[in-house]
Specification:
By secondary structure, this protein is an alpha/beta fold. Helix content is about 35%, strand content about 15%.
């Protein structure tokens, strides 16, 4: 299915290179919009979006809210605290009641893997996955890829190392699906207890020695140690983890001189990433945050039926095409 006809974004698994490219190209045009003095286009005027966050979030939630405002959409925000979920209401009843208020799109983050897929099969509204359990986080994967593409232009021949708690990371899975499809080499590295069994079937290389993994790397994506999702005893201690698998300036000498350092956040400084690396010249962590708004604008626009906007189009063309896309959606 082409991106222009895609109603939902549930994950990057199975998405074609053409679809991924069109999303990234459209995000590039929307990034130009975000750099204007007036950061708005009428692309989703008259569209109502509900943000259903059943888990805590800072970057993703604010990023989606900003994306919706910059597209001129009307948005409402839901959180578990103070809602009927605390009284025992099911996900299905919550979503169906919100849709009954004539909501057009739902952005959902949930601790249960597959929750967005469940809603997509149930509701008429478009569904965008903002993270489901340890399954996928497609918009994070897209913004990571967008940030890499800004530096490289293309993914062919590039080596990306994903380091850390791969077993519990939905970010890792979306990155793997997207990067492999676009032709990058992906290496995953971390303690053996934090590497999923048979992950090689996704097309990645597994390495437990960090220095070996980083040889000739073009990018290293550092994952947060998700202590809240882990069982006890997966590694000896956080000090041991920092010593063996933490990203610091010394171990980065194994990578290419222009290797970029990424992190989806929130960071555990001094554990998976050293302070000087997080704030250093190689870090593109804040670029990722900036790019997240443009990527989510593109996703919301395309899932709402908008026609693809090519990256080379002018800002005025973005306005015109966005308006036309809304008229025919």
């Amino acid at each position: 299915m082409s991106t222009t006809n895609r109603k939902h974004l549930l994950g990057l698994e199975g998405m074609s290179a053409e679809d991924l490219t069109r999303m990234l190209d459209t995000a590039e045009s929307f990034k130009e919009v975000s750099e204007r003095p007036v950061k708005k286009v009428p692309a989703l005027r008259g569209t109502t979006i509900a943000n259903l966050f059943f888990e805590s979030s800072t970057r993703t939630r604010i990023s989606f809210e900003l994306a919706e405002k910059r597209l001129s959409a009307d948005s409402v925000n839901f959180s578990v605290i103070g809602s009927s979920v605390s009284k025992g209401e099911t996900l299905r009843d919550t979503a169906e009641n919100i849709q009954a208020m004539k909501v057009d799109m739902i952005v959902i983050r949930h601790s249960a893997a597959g929750a967005p897929h469940f809603l997509a099969g149930l509701l008429e509204a478009s569904v965008v996955n903002a993270g489901d359990g340890a399954h996928e986080h497609p918009t994070q994967g897209l913004l990571d890829m967008f940030t890499m593409r800004e530096r490289w232009g293309s993914f062919a021949g590039r080596k990306v190392v994903i380091v850390g708690d791969v077993a519990h990371s939905r970010v890792a899975r979306s990155n793997i699906h997207g990067l492999i499809t676009m032709g990058a080499e992906v290496v995953v590295c971390g303690p053996p207890t934090l590497i999923p069994i048979d992950i090689e079937k996704l097309g990645v290389t597994v390495e437990t020695d960090l220095r070996t993994a980083l040889e000739d790397a073009d990018a290293v994506n550092v994952l947060r140690i998700q202590l809240e999702r882990q069982k006890a005893g997966l590694f000896p201690s956080v000090d041991e983890y920092a010593r063996v698998w933490g990203i610091n300036s010394d171990v980065l000498k194994r990578a290419k001189p222009d290797c970029v350092v990424m992190h989806p956040g929130p960071m555990n400084r001094g554990i998976e990433i050293a302070q000087d690396v997080a704030d250093g010249d190689r870090s593109v962590i804040l670029d990722q945050v900036t790019n997240g708004v443009a990527v989510r604008m593109a996703v919301l626009y395309l899932c709402n039926g908008g026609a693809a906007i090519e990256s080379e189009e002018t800002e005025s063309a973005v306005d015109a095409k966005a308006t036309k896309g809304k008229q025919v959606a």
